[in-house]
Amino acid sequence: xxxxxxxxxxxxxVEGAKGDAFGPxxxxxxxxxxxxxxxxxxxxxxxxxxxxxxxxxxxYAASASASRKFLKLFMDTLRQGDFEAAKRAxxxxxxxxxxxxxxxxxxxxxxxxxxxxxxxxxxxxxxxxRAIERGTSEVTELLKKGMGTLATIASASPFIGxxxxxxxxxxxxSDLKTKGAGDxxxxxxxxxxxxxxxxxxxxxxxxxxxxxxxLTNKQDQVITSINNAASQMIDEFIRRESRA
Length: 244
What we know:
The chain has helices at 3-18, 24-30, 33-79, 83-92, 97-118, 125-143, 147-179, 185-243. By secondary structure, the protein is mostly helical. The chain has one domain. α3 packs antiparallel against α7 (147-179) and α5 (97-118) packs parallel to α8. The longest helix is centred in the C-terminal third of the chain and has 59 residues, at 185-243. Mean pLDDT is 84; it is low at 1-19.
């Protein structure tokens, strides 16, 4: 009872083994020079996209690991009033973006305390808050590295693929004019070329959008962690000022 479907399956396997007119090798061989350039460009964009994602993911992982070790040590030494030990903790964990901002804030606090020694009513908290804002802005720019390129790949790849499709369709009509429509096999290469470039453009763009969203969420998490840690540090400074 299952012999008929099985025979169809066997027939399909045999035909597939003979060669696929729409396989990558066949499409590449039939592609025009402009579309070969487009295909190579899309492949290069895909590989560069993978490089960016790996580099950013490695950076975020290293920053998260360093931040976990840094924060406890920094806050403990800060509450004890050992500012030099707190700065050493920040210098030890330089991969932490939180450490970069908090060390900057601590440096400004120590500088403003020196000014307060000669000007009794000098406000030391506002300069620290402004320094933290500047530091957070600088870190945000570091976190944005490569994100614009990834967004460009995500948005431009479908259009690059569409350009290849238009070129392929033009080639199809050119083949129709010279070869006629009697033999569809003569047009298969041009048709495959037209379809493949759009498909390749989508293959490049879809993961780029996904990775862009993931990395944007990671960026927001880092900024939130910086703001929370900075708020705790400023609260500690305010407590110290209130006891002075």
